[in-house]
Amino acid sequence: MSATLATTGVGAAPVTARRPFRLNAWQTWGAILLAPYLLVFVFFVVYPVGYGLWLARHPASYVHLVADPIFAGTVVNTLIFLIVGINVKMAIALFLSGFFTHERRWIRWLSVLFILPWAVPSIPTILSVRFMLNPEWGVVNQLIFRLTAEDGPNWLNDPRLGLTLAIGVHIWKSLPFWTLILLAGRLSISADLYEAASVDGASGWQKFTHVTWPSMRALYVTCTILSMIWTLGDFNSVYLLTGGGPADLTHVLATLGIRYLRLDQVDLSMAAVVCAMPFVLPLVYVLMRRLSK
Amino acid sequence: MSAGIAGTPAATARALDLPPLRRPGRRDRWRAAGNEAKLLLVGIPVLIWTLIPIYHLVLFAISPKQDAFSGALFPANPTLRNFEIVFGQRHYFQAHFWQQLGNSVLIAFTTGVLTLVIATSAAFAISRLKVRGGRTVMNLALFTYFIPAAFLAVPMYKTMGAYGLLNTKWALILAMVTIASPYAIWVLKQASDKLPLELDEAAVMDGATPMQLFRLVYLPLMAPSLVAIGIYALLLAWNEYLFAFLLLSGDRDLTLPVALGNFLAADDSPWELLMTTGLIYALPPAAIYYAFRRYMVGGLTAGAVKS
Prior knowledge:
By secondary structure, chain A is mainly α. Chain A has 14 helices and no strands. By secondary structure, chain B is mainly alpha-helical.
């Protein structure tokens, strides 16, 4: 001890000498501060997941589930939602992010309004869409009647239209968010690159394919995967618009579990959630790999 | 996109996205007008698409009952009568309006505060105190964040039943804290990683204990991120439908969105009152979002708020 004091000098000595104690105090406080989250995690993530898997343990539940004709339709709907819905949404978001890079006062105002669907809760706006589409009193069919003197379609009572409209509602709600993210990506591209392209006489499209897209590709793919994961869990757009109907033909995996729960078939409900995992987990895995790079 | 006139160096310098300045020639003016037209061709449909459901909502809220179904694009006699009925709880559909509004407010605030406390201390422990196993906890949290909450709903419902919390506010609050915390920890950890390590070292030199470091150095520096995360958790709880609808029942315990959803199925629902309540319910989050936009944008681009 005294030797250390002598060699390292008075100022630094106490630090080195007391280090083991201090590190311990830090570790103790660290553990105390981490404890609340760990408790939440154990009681409200680990326990429910374990309980859920335990409820879904019988192979018979899966046989029963797969035999239900609603299940096959639900898987198809989920795939349509993912493959068509997400790609359309992300392509529009990519296009609009380019639009919002233009510096005009009115575009800045528009961008403020454009965020509204994302800033307001889903319930009132989905209700509003649902009422617009009401076959008898809804404003859409009233307009159709006034213009063509014919009755409009029974929008939400047609499974194909219903699913399409649910995808539309989903896009309406989440488009602003993805547009903003892609806009941030575009704005981080160096202006020098565009200037150099201009000097070389590149057209707008060439600038997109040679400058914008190479810089944005990684972000775009990450956003698409993330959006797919979240869309798999999009309960509101389907449940509040069509309620899964007509005749349970517009369910997706996120709403199917709730349907069985409401019918008091808890084992089927959990089995439906487990069946969604082969969709979710690979996407989460790929995403976490990409993010940790 | 840009004017694309690759002539003099001066022209290229301002070619990118800036409108041509000073004495544009006639051809330039035509080209500029064409560009504006193209932008409008995108902007106007975007504006209409964005506003239609919201406009329809507002229209219903300010129309008298008999006019609401006329299909007119403007109400002939706009009125605030619907708000009077809702605020006065004069229709059986919202006999508990104030109670339900109060529930929503209470649950949102409690969720916001609890999430902040839990996430801030966890982020501090992981990022500044370098607690052992912190990285693992971080990865676990991140993994939970990416699994859509809708798939946790049924197990959470059964779990709350097992804990005897079903139909209490705590069930929803704890569920929302569980959902909000992972993202909160992630964002706060990233933000605190950016604080210079020298600050901690200086504080330790002065003999600060970990908690003094937390209170006197860490919290003040993290204030902007804390505001953003508090609002994130608050809005998440305020907007939540699925968990609220599963975990709460009984007219006096419901939050506003569940009360709205319950009247969706009935054909004889008072639409104009539903829309009025919906508008009242939608206003606070929109106002909060716009008021704190500056704070939110940073958090937004950092990693995305759950939609």
